[in-house]
Amino acid sequence: MAEKLSEIIAHLESIAPLSMQESFDNSGLIVGNRNQMVNKALISLDCTEDVVHEAIENQCDLIISHHPIVFGGLKRLTGSNYVERTVELAIKNGIALYAIHTNLDNVLHSGVNAKIAEKIGLKQSAILSPKKGKLLKLQVFTPIDFVEIVSEALFQAGAGRIGNYSECSFQGSGLGTFKPMSGANPFTGTQGVRSREEEVRLEVLIPEHAVSRVLGAMKQAHPYEEVAYDLIRLENDWQEVGSGLVGYLAEEMSVDEFLAHVKQSMELPMIKFTPLTSPDKKIKKVAICGGSGSFLTKVALAKGCDAYITADVKYHEFFDAEKQLLLCDIGHFESEKYTIDLISEILSKKFRTFATIFAQSITNPVQYFI
User: CA 269, 271, 274 angle in degrees (round to 5)?
Assistant: First the structure.
């Protein structure tokens, strides 16, 4: 069954909002019209010419990839490189291109790292390096009789979530004053006369991506013509958003057992790893970062992880493990290849009759001679 592209995008971004992507990234709709109808989507890790040809052959009018085909700005389309040729081919054939990259990396639930954790059997997962500055606190002053109505509107719009708790708020009572002037249409009080009203200061946390929706719901539910509220950006860590993931194996393993387990679970041709000062060390607490994650090695070490699985580790960066952390480089493509399954699972929960197929093209630019 055909779906409107904007509806597909809205669902993907409800899981991984674009505001969660890194500043260097280019997630989102790259080619296409949000109002077009889509009959079938091809899901791929990368978007290349081969993948677009595959979409054409399978009559797909949408490609959803993890990696964006366009990172920097395109100044011309002359077919001089694979990026330009891929975009040209998609446009000529009416195929929309959508990328869901670091925003999907950075979410705890239904994210890239959660999929890796699922494959290797990690439990009690948490963000390895939580982001700051992505949470805001809303304070709104409400008549006592409308506290529940306004609270419910805020909660339904996505406010008041803290970890595994929902509908979290703080309420404090006080006295508000106001004087309606000419042209005002006050809910209570009289023009030209200062009024006093028993009010409640209602406080809730809001994720950055939900601010517009929450404020709209608040103003819709609030009885005042002019709603008094404060919106304050916080420096708190947001425990559900950030880089990497950390979790625990059901049972500790020896180094060799762990490496064999990861190789089998992730279907890997090889693993590059660091030696340890103590080869008898047991592996229990494991950090993960799909793709290029060497920037988190010291974080994993500081948090007492026994092993860290990532990719694209340079020679000198292996030294950062200090022989205390089993640093495993499993390859960029290999670490993220199950993202195709993840995207399909996200879509199928919402669009049960919408057709999706997995790209068969091997887009990994790295090959191994073993």
Answer: 170
Contact call for residues 200 and 144 (beta carbons, < 8 A): yes
* Exposed / middle / buried, residue 262 (Cβ in 10 Å: 0-12, 13-18, 19+): buried
Phi, psi angle pair for 365, to nearest 5° = -80, -5
Number of neighbouring beta carbons within 10 Å of residue 180: 19
Tokens describing residue 293: 């994650």
Give the fold, CATH level 3, of 134-234. Alpha-Beta Plaits (3.30.70)
CATH H superfamily, domain 3-103: NIF3 (NGG1p interacting factor 3)-like (3.40.1390.30)
CATH architecture of residue range(s) 112-129+242-333: 3-Layer(aba) Sandwich (3.40)
Q: What are 92-121's pLDDT values in tens digits?
A: 999 999 999 999 999 999 999 999 999 999
Residue indicated by tokens 């495993």: 328
Q: Tell me the whole-structure pTM to 2 decimals.
A: 0.90
- For the chain, the domains span 3-103, 112-129+242-333, 134-234
User: 288 forms bridges with which residues in the sheet?
Assistant: 245, 309
- Under DSSP, the state recorded for 331 is -
Q: What one-character-per-residue DSSP string does 193-217 give?
A: S-EEEEEEEEEEEEEGGGHHHHHHH
